[in-house]
């Protein structure tokens, strides 16, 4: 067989793909990244990098690139705004995010297009080849992996030792590799939109809030930009969709659970409004002969706890270490990545389920149920230890913190 054109071909130049490319290129491998978009656009995806994910960025050598991304902000407080609390009560209950993980300043708020651009530049600087505007990627797996694609009206074939699929939730690489996903059923659909709020919202604050039929997530960025989300039950008789979505979306923020709520509801839309299900997906076989999957292509976490960016960076770090430490790249030699990811995603599914249960969104008799669960947690704080996984990472709590019995115990409170 002729010499390979690259050691690694990464299909997908998003967060996971470019972070992996930057680390592997810095480690001396020849890496080609194939990206569909010529210019990165707003896809209403991951705006918050929780503290444990920033530590992964440090390990990958891309943290500075992230901190220099356009409109990046550091969020240091989580305020639990809620229909059962006054604004002042919620603010007194704020959680300090700056101390969640040593080395991380808090939650990093950064636009998805800006983050992808920053990481693509980092990959290029490290020596990777990033090709944009790619169309019609088809793969050939082991024993002689290759990717055939179109760019600028020309068909090319890139031979390699391993193909990495980093091409998102609807991954064509995953489909071609014959890898199936397990999924949970969504109870909530989340709509998101980027707005200009004129600086009304405190840039140091994020929230996951609930009022009536709506669940809210607010992620601030610099330069007056704010990513707003509204979640509604999948059984809601009036879901957010259709021509009136933007007006209804913003009006939903006209609620006194927030400070300056009238000004917040009057924010100016500056991006698309998109809706997607709040569920989990995973595979226990992210590596098959000739192909490895990372990021959303290998499965994702329920967006309610904003783990997506951190998962992508962790995938990039664990897989890059396995590739750089092994001379042969087989499912057996990369089993450490597969096993770690499987266990990690299981823990994050538990943490999301625990977060969801304690929030009580869409549950009957929410106020009374919350009161009983909180009383139980005050008596047995070990039942809530897995909540720390959201900001500190899935390995911060011991294995017993993820026992399924905990969810049953709290649900029956």
Q: Count up the domains.
A: 3
Q: What radius of gyration results from the CA coordinates? A: 21 Å
> Mind telling me which CATH architecture of the largest domain this is?
3-Layer(bba) Sandwich
Oligomer: single chain
How much of the polypeptide forms β-strand, as a percent range? Answer: 15-25%
Number of strands: 22
CATH topology name of the largest domain: FAD/NAD(P)-binding domain
Residue share in helix: 25-40%
Q: Helix/strand-derived class?
A: alpha+beta
Largest sheet geometry: 8 strands, mixed
- Give the CA-based shape: globular
Number of helices: 13
Mean pLDDT, to the nearest integer, reads 95
Say which CATH homologous superfamily of the largest domain is assigned: FAD/NAD(P)-binding domain
For this structure, what is the CATH class of the largest domain? Answer: Alpha Beta
**Measured distance between first and last alpha carbons:** 64 Å
| Uncertain residue segments | none
Domain FAD-binding: 6-347
GO molecular function: FAD binding
Protein name: 2-polyprenyl-6-methoxyphenol hydroxylase-like FAD-dependent oxidoreductase
Organism: Nocardia globerula
